[in-house]
Design goal:
By secondary structure, the protein is mainly β. It has a single domain, classed as Porin, CATH 2.40.160.20. About 10% of the residues lie in helices and about 55% in strands. It contains two helices and eight strands, in the order αβββαβββββ. The chain has an eight-stranded antiparallel beta barrel with strand order 1-2-3-4-5-6-7-8. The longest helix has 17 residues. It is elongated and about 65 Å long. The protein starts with a helix and ends in a 10-residue tail after the last strand. This is DUF6089 family protein. InterPro entries: DUF6089 (IPR045743), OMP/PagP_B-barrel (IPR011250). It comes from Polaribacter marinus.
């Protein structure tokens, strides 16, 4: 009797695992930053960037996802829209490594094997942690020491995805990150030479196109959410 129950549990568990649709993908695109240096546009990609992700389709409306993103950022006052910044002439580069977990919420039901449910716009609801460089000290005038810092961001994201061919799909996505930091551009009130920041925190954005590969048995979703 116990062996029979165990067998039924194992078969049921295997059916659940094999019955889901999984996705892996690669995103290529560009980043931009909005803060104390350079432009203040929220979508103005000026630095190549990329990401990889894994998704678990919970049901036709919701996909759980985890994403790692490599996001270089840069800005230059010569591209600013104010004379003050252009005359000041500051510039910087930094690199953000980001990990995001959360979900996609599809506006329409999305099933790659269905001819009438093969595209949808969606929104992203995520938790985001990121790592970047900041200036930790100035041992001599004009000479700076850099360290790594991990912080968190309030994320916003929107996208559109559609079947491409067979088990391949594509998406176009824009993600906005409001950080709790004001030193992505190395601004800090602890070092007089770098005390050029205002009172607002920095943003960074990533806009890209993804190629997505889908695998697993289709159209067998869990109930919930």
């Amino acid at each position: 009797m116990k062996k029979g129950i165990l067998f039924i549990v194992l078969v049921s568990f295997s059916s659940i695992i094999l019955g889901q649709v999984y996705e892996v993908g690669l995103t290529l695109g560009g980043t931009n930053y909005s803060g104390d240096i350079g432009r203040t546009n929220y979508i103005y990609p000026n630095k190549p960037a990329g990401a990889v992700f894994f998704k678990y389709n919970w049901n036709p409306r919701i996909a759980l996802r985890a994403t790692y993103s490599y996001l270089p950022i840069e800005a230059d006052d010569k591209n600013a829209d104010t004379d003050f910044k252009r005359n000041r002439g500051l510039n910087f580069t930094n690199t953000i490594n980001e990990l995001a977990v959360g979900m996609e919420w599809n506006f329409y039901e999305y099933e790659l094997n269905s001819s009438d449910k093969s595209w949808t716009p969606y929104i992203l609801l995520e938790l985001v942690a990121f790592n970047y460089n900041y200036v930790s000290s100035e041992p001599q005038p004009g000479q700076f020491n850099y360290s790594k810092k991990t912080s968190y961001a309030i994320p916003f994201g929107v996208g559109y995805k559609s079947k491409l061919y067979g088990t391949l799909a594509f998406s176009i996505e824009a993600k906005f990150r409001y950080t709790f930091e004001d030193d992505l551009d190395y601004s800090t009130n602890k070092i007089p030479a770098l005390n050029f920041g205002g009172n607002s925190n920095d943003w960074y954005m990533f806009t890209g196109v993804s190629l997505i590969y889908t695998f697993g048995r289709p159209s067998c979703y869990t109930d919930g959410l």
